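Hi everyone,

Forwarding the result from last night's run.
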Amino acid sequence: MTVANSGLLLPVLAAAIPTVFALAALAVSRARPLRFAGFAAATALVLAAAVTVGVALAPASAATPLSPLGAFLARAVRVDPVTGVMSTLICVLALVIVPYSRRYLDRDPGLPRHARALLGVLAAVTTLVVSNNLAVIALAWVATSFPLHSLLTFDRERRPAVIAAHKKFLLSRLADVCLAGALTLLSLSIGSLDLDVIEAWVLAHEVLPASVHAATVLLVFAVALKSAQLPFHGWLIQVMEAPTPVSALLHAGVVNIGGFVLIRLAPLMSQAFVAQALLIAIGLVTAIVASLVMTTRVSIKVSLAWSTCAQMGFMLVQCGLGAWHLALLHLVAHSLYKAHAFSSSGTTVERWRARHSLAVQGHASLGQIGVAALAVMASFGAAVVLAQYALGGPQDATLMPLMLLLGLSLSPILASGAAAGWRALGQLAVRTAGIALLYLVWHIVFAGVLPHAGDIDAAPWAVVIVGFASLVAVQVAMQVQPGGWLARTLRPWLFAGLYLDEIVTRLLFRAWPPPTPATSPPSATLRMPEILEARP
């Protein structure tokens, strides 16, 4: 459904969402900084839910003549299922992060500045989500960076925080240059930056001109820079110096914007084979390396940061494969998971110990893991065949390889359960089956939200499957033989992150050195939640 078919009400409701956050940011006071923030988040969630319901219920034939204001909103605001899903997601995250910020930064003198910047980020992100013009999307994406920089430098006297935020700021400006180049080329080639016009133009052209291919490549570079893809990932790891609510906002929301922009441009990107190949290459390498590096980290927040880096890589791989509905599903699931993970990071250590107590009862052998992998993938494959048969035949060609990848990733868990005993194996088997069923259901749901290719290109899918199979093989080999040659060779390099960030940091700071923060006693910046999170 398009905006023109939704009358005036839905565009007005969608445009009101960023307006509510902007007004709340202007209403921040020093006495009660977050007084209106919770109300704004709840109001925005009601508006987003109304938009989502309206998109689902409004008939496609309900087109009505529009007034000049309605015509302007029809062109400026995009009301579709993606808008409903994303705006609802952002408002739910706001309802989680706002009260968490109030508790975490209680009585902190910097809370008013934090509240204003937090609401500014939410206003910019929701503007980006509801806009129908690529230039407005780009400007809102750029605008998000500035209040986020204020959040990342909340403790301005802490030099590590200032340095990490400075690195992120420089890479974001480099991404903005790529984004500006992409928009310029698209505007000159297509004549408009409205998403509807771009989509219609792509449908009318089977082959993209070289200028549009160049624009999509620049867009991929911009997304890679802002999504913390290798080798530009270091800022995401080091901004853990910021307060935990800021980390939750960054990892659950802001870092996902690149994937959302690609989803908005799905019709264009689906025909840009060079850009798709770059997305697969960049995302696959990042997902593999970050997943391996994550296993060497002991800090909970740093481990979560490397996890975000890997998950963003996997999302870019899905975009490169043309599985746009799965990229949206991945974005939503990752956002909710990271919001929960960071908001409960103080108890993550205890939960990890509870899970780890099962694994230490026994070590799975390579044979057990291999048998578990074959059994799980065969079971998932059979489930997919039965599900698609029940739905009236093959519905989505991407479902089978993705379920096989899911089975491959879950097989080490079942193998660990086999090593721990039959009871543990039964529990993990039930949990694994539940995960597979839930993924299958959500896969079908999101297939109705976004269009996706019915056929798949075997070559890129084969590359991705081989890449993730190699990742699982290396992880298993390092776990089964932690003192073996492979583990002893790779672990020092993985612990150092392959030294990629050091090279990028040296080049960036040679061009623009970071500022020197004001000094103050370390004890003045240490808050009780950080002490609790640092406890072993």
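Residues 159-190 form the longest helix (32 residues).

Cheers,
N.
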